[in-house]
Specification:
This protein has a five-stranded antiparallel sheet. With 114 residues, it is an alpha+beta fold. The chain is globular, with a radius of gyration of 18 Å. This is Ribosome maturation protein. Pfam families: SBDS_N.
Length: 114
């Protein structure tokens, strides 16, 4: 794998006031969880945290969702319950991060033209 190259997997749910995002470890584990809820969430999600993008869809800046935002949208501030609701109702999105381009070390001493 080239430096910086990775796959980002997330579930996006457009709420009434905010867009909610949960990051996943893999698509396969997510699909297993959807079919069998006995699969532990720890094997599915990257972190037990819900993010909001402030109505920027799935691509906006990711900030941790406040308890007030969770309570207003889902009727609970329990992040485990909210994560389950986002996973059940949201849309899976997978994106490939490109590898880094350009020089790897700009301070190459005598190799740099003066």
């Amino acid at each position: 794998m080239v430096r910086g190259e990775a796959t980002q997997v997330k579930v996006h749910l457009k709420g009434n006031d905010e867009d909610f995002v949960v990051f996943l470890d893999s698509t396969d584990d997510y699909k297993k969880w959807l079919a069998d809820k006995s699969v532990p969430l720890a094997q599915v999600v990257s972190s037990f945290q819900v993010f909001v993008t402030h109505k920027h869809g799935a691509q906006g800046p990711f900030n941790a969702a406040s308890k007030q935002a969770l309570e207003a949208e889902f009727g609970t501030s329990n992040e485990d319950e909210v994560i389950k609701k986002v996973l059940e109702k949201g849309n899976l999105q997978e994106s490939q991060m490109t590898d880094r381009q350009g020089p790897k070390n700009d301070s190459q001493g005598g190799m740099v033209a003066h």
